[in-house]
Task: structure prediction
Amino acid sequence: MTGGAVGSLVSQVFMLTAKAVHSAVAGAAGGIAATFNTPIAAILLSVELLLFELRPRSLIPVALACAVGVALRPHFLSSGHSFPMSGNRAVNSPELISPVICGLLAAILSSILILSVYACEDGFHKLPIHRMW
Result:
């Protein structure tokens, strides 16, 4: 996030075009790549969320930022795993029930949330006051 903020700030200071802003925000991808040590995932995430396009003009700066982030990672972050796991052990069936239940509850609650947001929007449109208020 800091890399993206710095890239956005630099693009505003130098009054860059919208396409150049997308390239300047590639710092966010470099930060993701360095933090999680996943350069390919960072490239794909930034293309999906920041760039909205897959063109060499915007993809090359993102790929370079990811490469630099991963190359500099050992100098600024620990060289170990970001999320270490202890050993390899077999998972039995009862242990898989709780994640399935959590996933189903999350799906149901997110559907309820979306429906309630739409209901609130529709309710506000029906109020007998000016939309500015």
